[in-house]
Structure formats: C-alpha cells, structure tokens
Design goal:
285 residues, Rossmann fold, 4-stranded antiparallel beta sheet, 25% strand, binds adenosine-5'-triphosphate, P-loop_NTPase, ATP-binding, ABC_transporter-like_CS, ATP hydrolysis activity
Length: 285
C-alpha cells in the first residue's frame, strides 16, 4: 500500500481543495506539487541527468527548457517512471514516487500525454479514448479495480463512454469520434492525446513538446485549453522548444544544462539571464 493509499484524502483538481488526515496531514495547498531532489540518471558512461533539483508549484504552468541533450526528456522519464533514477528523490503531492512504475505514477495523479505512436491508428478516436484509463493505469490495476458483476461492468463502460464524449466535446473533436485515429492531422492528434490524458482525472499533466507540428490556430486553441484547465486547478509541466510558448505562457521556467538545473525563475528573468543565453548560444538550438 502506498503512502497515498494509507491516507484518507478528498481532493479534486477542479476545486483545488485538499483535505487530508493521516501520515501526510502536513501537506498543504501551498506546498509544491512536485519536488525533484538531486536526481541522477546514467546510461553507461553518460550522465544524462546530473543532480537535477527543482519544484513545481501546485496550479502552475511550469516550463522545462534547455539546449539539446540537456537532460529534459530523461528527467521527464524519471518523473513518469519510464526510467528509475540512480540517485535522488521525486516526491509528488507528498508521496515519494521515485522509481515507481508508470502506471503507479499515473495512479497517483501525475499523467503524461501519450506519444502519437502509442495511439492505435486503426481504432476510432472514441475507441482510443475508451482504452486510455486501461493504458494509463495499467491493465492489471484496472482489472483489480474492475467489478465482478456483469451489471457493474456495463455501467462502468457507460460512465467511461460518457466521460469520453465530454472530453471530446471539451477539446472540440467530438465530430471526429468515429474517425480512425490514423486519419487525424498532427494537431488533432495532440488534442486527442490531451483528452486521453485527462480521462484518468489527474492532478498534474506533463506535456512533452505539445506544440510540435501544430499549426498556429490549433496552437492557440491548445494553449487556451491549457489555461482553462489551469483555472480549474490542474498543474502543468511542459518541455517545449518554442520559446514564445514558454515565455508567454509559463509562470515559472526551469532551465537545464548538462543534466542539471542552470537557472530557474519567472520567464522575464530567465530571458535575460546571461548564463542561460550562453548555454543556448553554445548549444545547437
Ligand atoms: N537511453 C539512452 N541511452 C544512452 N544515452 C542516452 C539515453 N537517453 C538519453 N541519453 C543521452 O542523455 C543526454 C540527455 O538526453 P535527453 O534526451 O534527456 O536530453 P533533452 O534535453 O531531452 O534533449 P532534446 O531537447 O534534444 O530532446 C544526451 O546526451 C543523450 O544522448
């Protein structure tokens, strides 16, 4: 049983209310939702992440940037459980998730949008949505929480279908519900990834280059959705190479360089930070 399971808690990203009793009763709304401390990840002789420490404030849109090879993706993979850090700790919402498997991390409420490759291109958009909770929470976990009665199975499918439609409507892709996912444009796929991630009702979303390959009008729409969801209480951490997106939409920016955090602060401070400018000029961005 995880620390979170051992705690009686009622929380909702939408209301941003957290009431807890038990082991982590000291957890407060103004505590950071995510804390990385001295995270190290090595691949043979390469140290991809070299003692990265930073925090993400609850309800913020935080950008993680850095030149190519700075260690951003590896850090994301450590957070979401794809990689186990060699050193350091990762605490999400008061629970130590260091080295937890991806479905356990998702189950805690920290979800990453799926890469396009993970969608099933020959299945419809709606079918892809219906698969999302099973994928993200892990098949075995899904089975373990699945009801035994046939009636309940039918009810659960119906609830999932309803929620899938709500999400598709929110992202304005409900008219594509019966379309094969493989026929969607790059931008529409991003919206589908987003909708799928939200189906599991996470507290925080990790977005890996959400604007890559997205046309300007859809980018605007995606960003509006991000802000709308932020208003509902969701927290975002995004890796994004588009500096306009980072500078105009993130309250807090963390800059990685050579595996560790070079600087962090408000976008305006980061923009004029000489070390950051130098790191970028020295890189191939
Ligand atoms: N599985 C792996 N095996 C070996 N080396 C790896 C592996 N994954 C990443 N690296 C190396 O770790 C370093 C950091 O890579 P990472 O992909 O995390 O950087 P990044 O900041 O996300 O870069 P980019 O912006 O180009 O995606 C690089 O030198 C990369 O070659």
């Amino acid at each position: 049983m995880s620390d979170a399971d051992a705690t009686t808690s009622t929380e909702s990203a939408a209301s941003n209310e957290v009431t807890t009793t038990g082991a982590d009763s000291r957890r407060r709304l103004d505590d950071p939702i995510l804390e990385l401390e001295g995270v190290v990840k090595r691949f043979g002789g390469i140290t991809a992440v070299d003692g990265a420490s930073f925090q993400v404030e609850r309800g913020s849109i935080t950008g993680l940037i850095g030149p190519n090879g700075a260690g951003k993706s590896t850090t994301f993979n450590c957070i979401t459980g794809v990689h186990t850090p060699d050193e350091g700790s990762i605490v999400f919402d008061g629970t130590d998730i260091t080295g937890n498997a991806p479905h356990r991390v998702a189950n805690e409420g920290l979800v990453r949008t799926f890469q396009i490759a993970r969608e099933l291109p020959e299945m419809t958009v709606l079918e892809n949505m219906m698969l999302a909770p099973k994928d993200q929470l892990g098949e075995s976990l899904w089975r373990s929480v699945a009801p035994v009665s046939r009636q309940r199975v039918v009810e659960q499918e119906e609830e999932l279908r309803e929620r899938s439609w709500e999400m598709l409507e929110f992202f304005e892709i409900d008219h594509l519900a019966e379309e094969e996912a493989g026929n969607l444009s790059g931008g529409q796929r991003k919206l589908l990834e987003f909708a799928r991630a939200l189906l599991t009702d996470p507290e925080m979303l990790l977005l890996d280059e959400p604007m890559a390959g997205v046309n300007p009008s859809l980018e605007k729409k995606l960003l509006e959705h991000v802000h709308e969801l932020q208003d509902q209480g969701y927290t975002f951490l995004l890796v994004e190479h588009d500096m306009d997106v980072i500078m105009n939409h993130c309250e807090h920016v963390v800059v990685m360089h050579q595996g560790s955090v070079l600087a962090e602060g408000e976008a305006a401070e980061i923009k004029s930070n000489e070390q950051v400018i130098e790191a970028y000029l020295g890189g191939d961005v």
